[in-house]
Amino acid sequence: KLGSDDVVFVDLRDVRELKREGGIPGAFHCPRGLLEFWIDPESPYHHAIIAEDKEFDFFCTLGWRSALAADIAQQMGMKTSHIAGGFEAGTAFGGEVSQGKK
Description:
Layout: E1 7-11, H1 15-21, E2 28-29, H2 35-39, E3 55-59, H3 64-75, E4 79-82, H4 86-92
Parallel strand pairs: 1-2, 1-3, 3-4
């Protein structure tokens, strides 16, 4: 799905994890604690990218946060999935990683 115009990869990791470990190139960063605020169109923190008619594939480090996030986002009306095994699984299979900022 990477590179598809119909899919947005959402990195739920904390900014410190992102800086330390890098990320998936092109992924949208949304810290897990802000997700519901960014999804809710009535929230002053709403992000327009979340309202796009696309599939949103969530990931975190190991897949735990992203599984819960995908569930709540579906309940809020989004089309979602998550990467089982998270960022660590993706990099273990040779997935491309953008460099973190030290």
